[in-house]
Amino acid sequence: MNAFVLNQHGRMVFPSNIIPELDFSTMETLEQLDSVIRRDFETKAPSGTEILERVRTGGYASRYDLMRDMALNLFWANRFSITMYEKRPTRWGDLPRSRSDVFLPVLEPWEDGEAKVSGVQQAYPQLPSRWESPCEDRVFDVLFDVFANRRHHASTLPAVKPTVAEFLEQPGNLTFRLPDYDPDYPVYDYDDILDVDEDVPELTALHRWAMVLHNQYPWERSKVELAAAGEIKDDDWVVAFHPRDREVRAFLRRLRTQAPPRQAPTARESRPPVRPYPAVDVRQRFAVLPRLEALAAVHGDQACSNEDLIRNTAYNWSPMSAEEISSKTGIEQRRYSSLPLEELALQAAEAALAKAGREPEEIGAVLVATCTSSRLIPSLATYLCGQLGMHQVYAAYDIIAACAGMPYGVAEATRLLQEVERPVLVVCVEKFSDKIGNVRTSRMIFGDGAAGLVVGPAPEGTGTDFDVLKTYASGPASEVNSILWPNPEFDNNITVFGPQVKALAGRYLSQMIEEISALPHPDGVEGSLLDSVELIVPHQANKTMVIGLAERAGLSADQLYFNIEQVGNTSSASIPLAIHDAVRDGVIDAPVRVFAPGFGAGAVAGYAVMRVDPAVVAVQTASVPQDAGTTPAVREPNGSAQDSAGVQEAFG
Length: 652
Description:
Elements: E1 5-6, E2 12-13, H1 15-18, H2 30-42, H3 48-56, H4 63-77, H5 81-84, E3 85-91, H6 113-123, H7 133-148, H8 164-168, E4 174-177, H9 190-194, H10 201-214, E5 225-228, E6 237-243, H11 246-256, E7 280-281, H12 282-285, E8 290-299, E9 302-305, H13 306-311, H14 322-329, E10 333-336, H15 341-356, E11 365-369, H16 380-388, E12 395-399, H17 405-420, E13 424-431, H18 440-445, E14 448-457, E15 466-473, H19 477-480, E16 483-484, E17 495-496, H20 498-518, H21 529-532, E18 535-536, H22 543-552, H23 564-567, H24 574-584, E19 592-600, E20 604-612, E21 617-618, H25 645-651
Parallel strand pairs: 8-21, 11-12, 11-13, 18-19
Antiparallel strand pairs: 1-2, 3-6, 4-5, 7-15, 8-14, 9-10, 13-14, 15-20, 16-17, 19-20
Helix pairs in contact: 3-6, 4-7, 4-10, 7-10, 15-16, 20-22
């Protein structure tokens, strides 16, 4: 399923938020499945009894609130059928009896179902409309038709359904019975669901939910009964469940042959190092001084606003408005890319080389900082070498340092300069939009983007652009595992454990401020290294959180530059993207000393105190129009570009 699509109205849509489709490829146990199901379908969903109680006690403030609960209840009632199985109405006489991949659901009658349906039906017209009464009425009609004709209890549904043979072993088992079946029963097309566009974002999401739930019962629902095998005639129809795809089939096979679960090793108590690691004074430590020759940025080509998120509210999200997202994160929109990660990286590399005036054959090493690449062989760095026509470099490898990717990348480039004495290309690139799924915390924060930096040897007799470099890693196991990907218990999507992330960020930021406050002014004048800093460009994690942590560390909000409002959190790319935007927006209009701290996933952190000259920044004046399916141009091994005009035009 695509991470996002644009519908006919030009609106961004996340299909996985409205059409449940779990990733069973790395799921091994029922416990892992149960964790996903509980999070996605059960935690927020009220039972029919709870809905009726809220109706009777005046617990609903509006029609929307009632309908939202109805929809969540129905998603819960369909939690396994909608994610694991395809429903195929089949004549009882034609139903295979011995196949191991054809199942029948065992159902229990819905207790007091009539009272719950009647209560909802009577309550709805008495409640006030929250936004638009005609739209709410249309959505209610679709939802109520499904809710009113539900026949089965939802709390006792197992994930693994019995085969037909197993079903027949228990004469009292009940399942769906239809007197007839119309294969042309009207359902909503996929594009119909995506193209819903109500004026109110919340109603757009709810309308899509209703359409998806309608499609779960593509038959005349009022005629459905629950019947035991002995009551079903050959010409009656039952609803056979078939595995939705081969990954579900493989998961069911794994369950049948499942080995005892392996116990994860217990992490040792974390201990501080025997002595601190000092910050690296670049001038004193290195013979070959590094110079920032170029910095180029590539933003995502699609803006995803907070209202876009609300239009795509998933069935496992707590209610939240666009304004609340902004106040919690400081983000108004995040940028997504329609290009693959590799092409984002290639565009950034091309633009950085063009700005530096370097040909590929002049480059000594290529480093790629990313935590969202699924490319292992060849590494993304090596892939870029091939695409750029680099016949041979001294080294090319990927660095997985997440939000500290830029400090890690420039520190490693500086070390490599000592050996190769020629420029190092550092690319920081992330594409989160296809790693998030329907996880609200991640969807609120993360975006896509890339930046390329050329770090070369400073000409003889000149100074370095980097004063101090420092990297860190590790911490308590809870912080090391504060952000996970992939994670089977979150449907293999990126998982963020907020309190642990905040703890590690606060710990590292305080340590950084303490360190640079104790270091001397690099220009040999009175004061500290912190006193010499003219602008702080932090990793753009969460504006609200970072400002709070910075103030506790003794900094003021006006010392910090943020662009997270418009691009979101792009992890390793966030600091160089922010530096680019500070130059583009005139915040940096002359050479300045910047403190650039990064901290995040895997309990990694690092910083650079560096001089940024706006003259080396390739200001992005326009997005690069490129079809998502277009193959990027490959340079010849001598480094001559087959197609560089577009990059030069786009990045100046």
